[in-house]
Structure formats: structure tokens, C-alpha cells
Amino acid sequence: MTSCAGCLAWGWTYAQGVCLACYNFAARNPVTGDCAGCGRRLPLKKGYCRLCWCQAREDRAALASDARSAVVIAPYLPGVRHHQLFFADMNQRHARPRSMPRRRGAKGRPRKPLPPPAVQPRPAAVQPALFDTLPRAYRFGRTDLRAGPPPGNPWLAWALHLA
Questions:
Q1: Hey, where are the domains in the chain?
Q2: What angle do CA 124, 125, 126 make, to 5 degrees?
Q3: pLDDT tens track for 89-128
């Protein structure tokens, strides 16, 4: 944590040594010059830097007498002669938490129906084994593939090579 180079606010810097608000202020106001309020060379909006705009907003909250002066900030900008330092990102407005829990599934596409329950199918008829009576000519222990010649099948030879 450090102070912002633009508005001198203490907090996390976003990029190039400035807070996120000053970074966005400079992106929206690319004109750089001497501020009419504090005299620092920074990005300007109507001749004033972001720190002077923040101070004018604070002055407006304290000095506003009618509804119009409670909305407009520009008349308070020439009166800025000092700055109240602040913490970065402390004046953001956050939405209030929901009073009701969110209803899931009420909007948008309806939910998919559940699949039918999985059961083992009952066989209609039993099929007899095809080679039940033929003698088996191959025995597992009779052939050692590691010592003998490779088999004649090229796919089996390649599989044994990889294994």
C-alpha cells in the first residue's frame, strides 16, 4: 500500500503509481496541464485535477444551501485552496444487500426434466455361447513373447514394442 501519485490518497495503486479512480480520470481526460486549484501538473477536467474535484465535492456536501447547489460541483472548484486527504476507493457506492433471497430458476430457460431412473434391463431371451464346445488352442504360459520372435501380426508387434 502506498499513496496515489495523482490524488495523494492512501491505498492500493492500480497502475503507473495511481489509484483506479485517477487511472480512469486520466483515461477520460487526456489533457495534461497545470491545475487551476493546486498548481500541480496532472490530467485536467475543465482546468482542475481529480484531487481538486474530490475536494470540491466535499465542500459542496458541507456548504450546499439549496437543491441546485447540492447537485452541481463546478461552482465550488474556484474556492478550493486546501485538500483533505483520504483513503483510496473509500467513496465508492456499493449496492445494498438483497432483502429477499434470490429466486433461482424463475427467469430464463426452464430447467431440463430429470432423466428416467437407471435400471438394469430385463433380458427377453438368453443367447447361448457361440464357442462353448471348441477346445482352446492357446495357453498363456506356453509362449514367452520377451524371448521368442515377434508375432506375425504387425499391430501386435507394435503394441509389444510400446509396452
A1: 2-76
A2: 135
A3: 766 666 777 677 766 666 677 777 776 776 766 767 777 7
CA separation, residue 57 to residues 38, 105, 110 (Å): 15, 43, 48
Residue length of the chain: 163
Q: How far, in whole angstroms, is CA 78 from its chain's centroid?
A: 40
Q: What cell was used for 79?
A: 474556492
- Mean pLDDT confidence for 133-140: 62
Name residues whose C-beta falls within 8 Å of residue 29's C-beta, 6 or more positions apart in sequence: 43, 44, 45
| Burial of 115 from C-beta contacts in 10 A (0-12 / 13-18 / 19+) | exposed
